[in-house]
Amino acid sequence: MPGGVIMAEPTFGVIADDFTGATDIGAMLVRGGMKVVLTIGPPVADFDFGDADAVVVALKTRSIPAPLAVTQSLSALKALRQVGVSRVQFKYCSTFDSTPDGNIGPVSDALATEMGSDLVVHIPALPINGRTVFKGHLFVGNALLNESGMENHPLNPMTDANLLRCLGAQLKGDVTLIDHVTLTTGADHVRAALAGSGGASHVIGDAIDEADLRVWADVLQDAVFFAGGAGLATPLAQRHSDSKGGVPAQPSDFGTALGGNTLILSGSCSKATLGQIEAFRKAGGAIRQIDPIAIEAGEVTVEAFAKWAGETLTDKPVLIHGSASPADVLRAQTELGEARAGEVIEGALSKLAAMLAPQPHVARIIVAGGETSGAVVSRLQIAALRIGSEIDPGVPWTLALDATGTPLIPIALKSGNFGGEDFFVRASLEDSL
Ligand code: ADP
């Protein structure tokens, strides 16, 4: 330990059932003043968390069989407790993505039992994104969950907005409601209502706005376990910062802390990303497109892209994209097969990341696309991310760490639809263009 300083252990842990959900709650905790490390899978025993207050473990358990989700979540809990975490949230999507088999019910039940908690409070609401819960019913904007489009979800169609019924179908025990009327009477009344909740093992909590979430944060700030969306993260983190009595931690600006230039790698073909690429081009940015058909035919090589990028990055940012219009994507998929076309682009972009990241002029990397981010993270052997300040809502700068907690490189992982139109221009430091 440097200079014999006693480092505080992280006390709050989150087990998230998917990667973007993990980044989302990580950014929300940072917004409330916590220092947060996100680990990809459970952390290893000797991982150096530095001065982190909270650890978010990103799992991929949302749509796997319930028994497997339970086992993986319990392993994550064990790892979190070993690093000193004493309070835990199970984080799931604010649209309650699950089926009658699980996994929200079985996973939250198992984690609660392990934490010695006989009552699980669920706060799914995320009012900032229009997800509210009233009288136990989940709304997305003005629509009930089952009329919001979520009823057509390919993996977990949500055909009932009544969360007591949804959760009840996944559990043996009873589910009760703490409704909005009780919330308006304040935290003490909510605590009393919880204490008298008649032997139920799970409670759904209404919350329609930030004021409701603040009441829940008062109620749950010392709870050893609860479950829900990312809505409570910021108010809970604020209470944590207040209890430490100091000034809340300012999120680190990992993105701009170093000199050098930004490498942008994009595999996302979403409308938002295509617009961001166009804006970068219009602003005079250096761009190359990778055509998967040409790569597969050996007409161009990843090494040639790496050579151009390495030279160009000595004085400006570079964007390399597989991202293409729907017509071009269809052409590649028809020629190569859907899976292979994707693999070629993910393979090329992640190889570029590995070749260019060690070069001295590459100060930071931005990756666009969820799957593409996954490919880059695994190729660079990133084990964890220290969450920094947000570039745009939901897209923080992070510092990538290896399996021992040693910094690798600042990186921002943007899922397809996120970010304003000038995202790449702003994030790659406008003035260096
Ligand atoms: P998003 O977050 O926008 O969904 P993803 O990275 O998750 O982005 O998914 C985009 C997929 O499209 C990736 O598998 C990527 O490899 C693939 N892809 C990118 N460019 C092309 C292309 N030109 N032709 C075919 N597939 C492509």
Could you explain how this protein is built, in words?
This protein is of the alpha/beta class and 433 residues long. Helices cover 36% and strands 21% of the residues. It contains 15 helices and 18 strands. It has helices at residues 19-31, 66-82, 104-115, 163-169, 180-184, 187-195, 210-220, 233-243, 271-282, 292-296, 302-312, 326-336, 338-356, 370-379, 423-427; strands at 12-16, 36-40, 54-58, 87-91, 120-123, 131-134, 137-140, 143-144, 175-178, 202-205, 225-228, 261-266, 286-289, 318-321, 362-368, 384-392, 395-401, 407-414. Strands 9-10-5-11-4-1-3-2-16-17-18-15-12-14-13 form a 15-stranded mixed beta sheet, sandwiched between helices. Helix 1 (19-31) crosses helix 8 (233-243). The radius of gyration is 22 Å and the shape is globular. The structure holds adenosine-5'-diphosphate. Adenosine-5'-diphosphate binds at residues 267-270, 273, 292, 322-324, 328-329, 332-333, 341-342, 345-346, 369-372, 415-416.
